């Protein structure tokens, strides 16, 4: 673990909703709270990093604690993990786990993608993965779906929808659904 950091497991973050007559509801318990130099940086819910909105909320929470993109990038550089996902940087700080590169994560995900998505979806997801490898985890945010579709399909969302199954909501499910494979634990 990085000096000055610790991880609190199953840590109570609220006393519970006030229900009246001196009673409270069930307390909210976080799976993990990441602490660095006595500052609570982040609440992490297990298995939630693969969900774009949850990931964005966590990163915003870090930024609100004055640990924004610049400091995360500096930490990536400090641990020589510039080509790694921020997930791996946080895992290194919390657990001293060796960082995995985004390219390795993309290769791991392709194994699952090739058996769970049709050929056209695979081609689009391969395009997304290339951007993830080159640009980072921000490419996986829900707000990036439309720009990625425009880039891949020459600015034509209509062509994207036709090529990827005819239903926009299905494209959203494909985009968000494949991300769990980037963070799936590997055997061994």
Characteristics:
5 strands, 9 helices, two-stranded antiparallel sheet, about 190 residues, about 50% helix, about 15% strand
Describe the structure.
By secondary structure, the protein is α+β, with helices and mostly antiparallel strands. It has nine helices and five strands. Strand 2 and strand 3 (23-24) form a beta hairpin. The strands form two sheets. It has a three-stranded antiparallel beta sheet with strand order 1-4-5. A two-stranded antiparallel sheet has the order 2-3. The protein has helices at residues 52-64, 69-78, 86-95, 102-116, 119-135, 145-152, 157-163, 168-177, 179-182; strands at residues 5-12, 18-20, 23-24, 29-36, 39-44.
Summarize the structure.
With 188 residues, the chain is an alpha+beta fold. The chain has helices at residues 52-64, 69-78, 86-95, 102-116, 119-135, 145-152, 157-163, 168-177, 179-182; strands at 5-12, 18-20, 23-24, 29-36, 39-44. Strands 1-4-5 form a three-stranded antiparallel beta sheet. It has a two-stranded antiparallel sheet with strand order 2-3.
Distance between the termini: 22 Å
Rg calculated over all Cα atoms: 19 Å
Class based on secondary structure composition and strand pairing? alpha+beta
What is the residue-mean pLDDT, rounded to a whole number? 81
SSE pattern, N- to C-terminal: EEEEEHHHHHHHHH
Strand order, main sheet: write it out.
1-4-5
What is the total tally of β strands? Answer: 5
Tally the helices: 9
The stretches of 5 or more residues where confidence is low (pLDDT under 50) are none
Major β-sheet profile? 3 strands, antiparallel
Proportion of strand residues: 5-15%
Residues in helices, as a percent range: 40-55%
Shape: globular
């Amino acid at each position: 673990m990085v000096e000055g950091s610790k991880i609190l497991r199953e840590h109570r973050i609220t006393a519970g909703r006030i229900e009246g007559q001196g009673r409270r509801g069930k307390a909210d318990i976080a799976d993990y709270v990441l602490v660095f130099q006595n500052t609570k940086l982040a609440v992490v819910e297990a298995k939630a990093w693969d969900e774009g909105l949850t990931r964005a909320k966590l990163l915003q929470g870090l930024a609100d604690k004055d640990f924004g993109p610049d400091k995360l990038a500096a930490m990536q550089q400090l641990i020589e993990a510039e080509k790694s996902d921020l997930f791996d940087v946080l895992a290194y700080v919390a657990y001293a786990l060796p960082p995995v590169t985004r390219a390795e994560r993309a290769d791991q995900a392709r194994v699952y993608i090739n058996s769970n998505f049709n050929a056209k979806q695979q081609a689009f997801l391969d395009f997304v993965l290339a951007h993830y490898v080159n640009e980072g985890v921000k490419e996986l945010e829900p707000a990036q779906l439309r720009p990625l579709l425009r880039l891949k399909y020459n600015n034509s969302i209509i062509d994207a929808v036709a090529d990827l199954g005819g239903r926009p909501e299905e494209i959203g499910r494909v985009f968000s659904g494949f991300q769990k494979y980037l963070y799936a634990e590997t055997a061994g």
